[in-house]
Structure formats: C-alpha cells, structure tokens
Amino acid sequence: MWDYTEKVKEHFYNPRNTGPLEGANATGDVGSISCGDALRLMLKVDPVTEIIQDAHFQTFGCGSAIASSSALTEMVKGKTLDEAKQISNQDIADFLDGLPPEKMHCSVMGREALHAAIANYRGEEWSDDHEEGALVCKCFAVDSQMIEDTIRANKLSTVEEVTNYTKAGGGCSTCHEPIEEILTKVMAERGETFVPAGAKKAKPAVAEAAPAKLGTLARIRKIEEVIAAVRPTLLADRGDIELVDIEGKNILVNLVGACSGCQMEAATLAGIQTKMIEALGEFVRVVPAAKAQAHACASHAHGG
Amino acid sequence: MSTPTPIYLDNNATTACDPKVVEAMLPYFTEQFGNASSMHSFGNKVGVALKAARTKVQKLLGAEFDSEIVFTSCGTESDSTAILSALKAQPDRKEIITTVVEHPAVLSLCEQLEKEGYTIHRLKVDNKGRLNLDDYAKVLSDKVAVVSVMWANNETGTYFPVVEMAEMANAAGVLFHTDAVQAVGKIDINLAATKIDMLSVSGHKLHAPKGIGVLYVRRAVRFRPLLRGGHQERGRRAGTENAPSIIGLGVAAELAMEAMEHERTHVKALRDKLEAGILAVVPHAFVTGNPENRLPNTANIAFEYIEGEAILMLLNKQGIAASSGSACTSGSLEPSHVMRAMGIPYTAAHGTVRFSLSRYTTEEEIERVIAAVPPIVAQLRKLSPYWGENGPVADPAKAFDPAYA
Description:
Chain A is an alpha+beta fold and about 300 residues long.
C-alpha cells in the first residue's frame, strides 16, 4: 500500500469540485486511458478580470491522481490565469503534504491540465513537452525517459554525470544498474561503448599501487573539491551546502535552504559521503554540523 | 466511525499462517533449537522432525521419494535453482522455453539470461490466457535446456496443461520445470504419475510461513546446486536448515490435504457466488482468464473505465483486501503483463481487481463484498471523463482526446 498522507486520502475519499462544470469556458484534457490516468480540468474564467471563478475536474486514475485533481481545483479558484500559471507540480504535491516519488507524475499531470486549460481559454495551441518512462530513481523521482533524453542531449557517458544532470542515482544508489543499462543503450546509438566507472579505475590503480595517504592540506582540498562538485545539484534544488569543519573521520557540513530538514537530507548526505570516500580513498562520515555534538557523544559511548 | 471487520481476499499474494502451523513451529525456536547436523540430542530431535515434514510435503506433491524434496528459502529461489541448474548441467543447450504470463521470478531471470546470450522462447496466450501447444511443439528441440511453465497463473488462476506439456518435453528429451506456487495446496497433484522434472512450491501461499520454499527434483534428473557449502539437503541446497519453517510447512501440507475437498467445493462455490453477484449488478465488467479451467479460489474481474488502485483504496476503507493489475499499484506505467498478454484493452486492464479466497473465507464475507463493490465502481465512474450519465461516453477515444500521449 502506498504511504499516502492524510490529506491525499481525504481528497481522494471526498473529492471536491467533481463532474462537468456548467458555463465552463476553458477545458484542459491531459493523459490517456492507456497510460492509466487521464484528467479533464474545466474552468469558469471571468472574461474581464481573468479570475478563475470556478473549477471542476473529471479524472480516470489512481488515488493520488484523483486527490491531485481535487487539490488543483481548490488551489486555482480565485486566482487570475497568470497567477494560476505559476502553480508548479511541487505546489500541488505540497498542498497535499507530499506525494510518494512514484506518484509525483500525478501532480505533473495536474499542472499540465492547468496549462492546457489556460491555452484553451486563450485560443493557443498546447502540447506537452515531455514523455514519461518507467520510474528509475526512487529517491529523486526520475524516470527512464528523462534520463535517456538527458544522456542524449548532453552526450553523457558515466553514471556520475547522469547523477549530476538529473540527480538520478544520487541517493541510495540502488538504481545504478538500470542507469548503466540506459547509458549502454543510448551510447550505442552514437557508436560508443559504455565503460563502468569501476572498470576504468581498476587499471591505473594497479599501476599506482596503493595510493599514498593524503597530506592534511591535500585532504582538505579534496574535501572542498567534492563539496564544490555537489553544490550545483543542490543549488538547482534551491538548497546549498557548506563545509564547517573536519574532525578526523567526521566531515561537518551545513545543509541550507531547501535541503535543510528536507526528507531527502539523509539520502543527500549519504550520496556526498560516498563521493568523499571515493575521492579520499579512506572511510569518512559526512555529518550535519548541528547534529555533530550529539553524534560525537554517541561515537564516544561506542568507542573502545 | 468504527473500523469494519477486515475481509482478506488476497490469498494469492500471501496467506495467513494457520494457527496449528504456528503452534507446531514454536518449540523449534526455543527448546528444540539444535542444528540437525549436530551429533548430540539437541540436533537429533530436529533431524527427526525434519524427516517427518519432508514426508508430509512428499505426500502433498505425490512424489515417489522423499529425497526428491529440497527445501529452499522461497518460491523464487526454487525457480532460479531449477532454471540455472538445467543450464549448468547442459552447457551446450542455450535455449529456454517459457510463457509471456509467468511470474517475475521466472520472467526477470529469463530477461537477464537473454542479455547473457541465451535464447528465450516466450509462448503467447490467447484472450483467455490459453497456450497454443502447436507453437510449443515447434520450439521444442535438443537445443532447449529447460521448459519453465507455471501450473496456474497468479493473476487469473488459469491453468496451463503442464502435465501434457511435460510429456511432450520428455519425448523431446528436454527438462520440464513448473512454477506451481499457486496450485500446490489447492488442487490434487500426483507428480509420480507425471513427467514433470522439477516443481517450485512457496510455503506462504498455503498457510505456512514466509521464507520457506520447496524445489521438487525428480530422482536422476541431472542437478547443479545454486548454493554450495554444507551437505544439507543431500548437497543440493547448502545452508543450515530453517527447521521451524520446514516443520511448519510439513503441518501446512498436511492441513492442505485435509482441506482439498473443501477448496474444490466450498471455496469454489463462494468464488462463483462472488463473481455472479458482482457481474449481475455492475455493467461493463467481465471475468478475465479462462473461467472454465482455473483455480477454485481466484476471481479476476475487469471494471471498465476506472482505475484499479482507486478501487482498492475504497475497498480497503471498508476493510476489504484485494489486489489489482493496474499500473499504479505497482509503480510502473504499464498495466499487468498478464492482462496485456491476453489482449485486454487498456480501458479494462487498468481496472482489473483480483479477489483470491482461502479456506477461511466465509459466506457472510462474500455477501459483504458483493454489496460493497457496485457503489464503489459507480462512484469512481462518476468521476471518470470516459463515463457519461448511464454508461461509457459514446466513442471514448473521440470524446476525450487530449493533445498529450
């Protein structure tokens, strides 16, 4: 069973504004029966003020599709078309206190129906700009189509690059196998062969023998390099990270902005930690500075 | 609002452990904790109990020898062991025959083997989920290492003619495996009288605990273990025996044999009543699979123009547990591969609901479900853009034709 929030369940069990809307002057249809979800959004727009006076929906779909549709109708009422257009799929998900990553596409469908309805009102042509594939990365809700398109557009060739561009694979890392499969397929299209990162590293490692232990300064620089490398991904998500201190094996950082306290915080830190370990060639912990005090005590108790 | 008494109709997913099974298992966690391989009295009693359990499973399967029973950790392990063993034992044979509607335990493994260079023949089914045995005969050859075909489909309950197919494989000199996790315990099986070489069982599908499975391996069938190590299971499956679960499965096997007649008559009657009761009231709904030839406990009904997960959530609110072949319940985009293979249109495939009964299902429960389903379907159809006042909108594809998709 999906872990739906109370608000999702409430909007599913008691959907608002259902059925055809009398006097509707804007309609947005998205989805299809083959995809398993389809949504028709109907708006009654004041021709003078462009304020949405009423909104109704009809949805064929799962619990979260119906809840997202219901939420959307509530959110747009009283807004002007331009204001409504600012509503993102994340706003719809937030209105419902969140959606499981596998179900984020339901909120995307809501936003698309809204855009389609606005285009319909203004007599514009609307076409959706994305196709959806199977969900690959469950931590960041990235589907195969998105990964494929990004690899193709940017000529990516490693899992790490895919993570940097799409975030896919940056959390628990269990989806690296399917990402490698997509890389293999898309790289073959351009006549290249995918080489796994491990295979690439293995050869020089033999030549270098055991990597020399890093000096203190070199070690700090490496740590800073890793932080710098992950920042763009976090910034793209309206978050940020800063290095606070290094205490032996513990690297203390501050996650700020959207990242701090976000449910992905642990996954984000785990991803950064993996990169640190790779870069430094030693085991380290990446710990939020705020929790470091408690952490230090805990490791003390277990020490010895 | 008081929570209604739960009704569990998802027994093809998993079953409740029978209280008698639990009772039989308990001593083997505490006073009888010994390792059956040990040379002292702690282990000895466990060894005796394991032998008794093996005999009970042998009887349930109608196997000729108790040494043909290999305990594993689950149905999936049994399937993997069987298929990989056949490949290892016959390295010159690079082909496998299976069907498009197998469980992922077989299908995913075959997909992986395909990437590794094996040729997979996936037999197609018709709109009732039936195989064409002429197609099968055409691909049977001395290049085939193993045929793996399920006894009964988990979604529709439809049987495949595995006994006949095993005869054909045997005549062609090809090993035959069947994933029988849905069939064992529900129907009479007499392996000694068949040419089936290997058969998979899953304990938790027949009121034994999760984490225990069986692979039947006919005597003299060439076999290569998946796990090597100790001499457990006569060297065919290394690893210390899961004694409590094996003993539990033994009891479950015995209980299943006692309940077989009840399953064939009473459970089947309840299933038929459920289907007839729903279909009499709900328009645009139909049974999927082959109603003439299927498990006595399974009913799979497609409700057109609505989506399965939404149905399940509303059923769950009333305490009724079932499952669906819709894309949304699995997190994938495609509805169930079984429904697609049978050519069930998308208008219906997303709205399939499986009710699977057990020997604990009562008539009162079935009556409650018959009463609960029609209003739920009506409620969701009222929300659907594909549904008009009293039926599907005329030409749904035209009435609702978004730019999208």
